[in-house]
Amino acid sequence: MRLLLTGISSFTGLWFARALAAAGHEVIAPLRAAAYADPLRQGRIDQAAKVAELVPAAPFGSDAFLDLIARRGPFDVLCHHAAEAANHKSPDFDVEGAVAANTFNAERTLAAARKAGVRRLVLTGSAFEAGEGQGSQPLVAFSPYGLSKTLTARAFALTPGDTVHDLV
Question: What pLDDT, on a 0 to 100 scale, did the predictor assign at position 63?
Answer without folding.
Answer: 98
